[in-house]
Amino acid sequence: MTGATAKTKASRAHNRLKAVLDAGAMLFATKGYKATTMRDIASAAGMLPGSLYYHFASKQDLLLAVYQQAVDEIRTRTEAAAAAEAEPWSRLEAAVVSHVETILDESNYAKVMIGVVPLDAPDIADELTALRDGYERSFKTLIAALPLDSKTDKKLLRLTLIGAINASQLWYRPGRYSPARIGREVVRMLREPLG
Amino acid sequence: MTGATAKTKASRAHNRLKAVLDAGAMLFATKGYKATTMRDIASAAGMLPGSLYYHFASKQDLLLAVYQQAVDEIRTRTEAAAAAEAEPWSRLEAAVVSHVETILDESNYAKVMIGVVPLDAPDIADELTALRDGYERSFKTLIAALPLDSKTDKKLLRLTLIGAINASQLWYRPGRYSPARIGREVVRMLREPLG
DNA sequence: TCCTTAACCTAACAATTGTTTGTTTTTTAA
DNA sequence: TTAAAAAACAAACAATTGTTAGGTTAAGGA
Fold first, then answer.
1. Which nucleotide is nearest to A15 (CA to C1')?
2. Is the pTM of this model over 0.85?
3. Which of A65, B24, B37, B125 gives B118 a disulfide partner, CB atoms 3.0 to 4.6 angstroms apart?
4. What percent of chain B has pLDDT over 90?
């Protein structure tokens, strides 16, 4: 175990692990987890079904890998966006806008993380939930920094906020509302009085 | 065609159509649409797989029937709850509370309507969406009656509200927050200023 | 150059799936 | 009482599924 194994593996010319992951993310995001077959993924990655099992032990393991990368991507993006702002509400808004842009537009991986629910893969439901929770914890910090009324339940605020923005995946169509605007307005509706 | 056909059919002693629908709703709500097999439903309804096809032409048709009943149930409940209040915000709150109670506790049908997304059954996706939209239109009226700031986008408010409360299905566990409280607090967070 | 092994192919298997077909039982109307 | 219609059974089919086992190719260190 020299630690060079991973690098050697990755440097092999014919290694198409990334192509497999990309294909899986794209298809899971488009058709859903159950409706996507290993043959679909193999075909999109330019290989045969059986070859996928050199890279992943099972379909569920592939989903898990996609989820993992999704968390890495969206967390990096969103934390960077938040870090660019100083004022607490601005930080939250920046994070939310980045989040919405990522899950609606920019990353098939993130789309999978939001659209594919743990119930779709019961055997690894706990792992999927843990990955999601790990990411959502970022919002805990952002909300804790807000100057909130004492009677505001912060946990419920977080769940409400995340629920509202993630639900946009169900109704979003390019054109009417931009992802950035969706993020901004949702935050504003929670921040300012409506009545 | 005397119009008595339906009644005759329904009055048959051994007609277990309702048992089939209930079984379908329960299993779709618990395991999801794809993970539920016709054998599961038949077994739960106390009959054999093939017998289901006397009542429904396909699995998708069964889902459609469950969706249809879900809309009937939740709309009746929620509109009645709203009608009991006079003030606009109170009406909305009553409707939201009723909605949340129904999809978290009281109706497997409603659970299916929220938890099973059109993508799960692509062939009837349009019908499913139409049914859902038909119900959600109730909220349009309730929101239109609110005394809102002129810069509030009512459509986005509706989508945000519905998204937030429906998302509770993903994290709700009996105990910590009651369905009624979830509904009340979500409305309050949108109504009152938090900062 | 040789030889290990990463990477992929080929070809299938076993299980599960929604569905169909023909038959039987049960109910209802005449 | 009888015959038609309703409701369910019994048994399978055809397609699809995730997965596996063994063979093949090519890369890269020695």
1. C7
2. yes
3. B125
4. 88
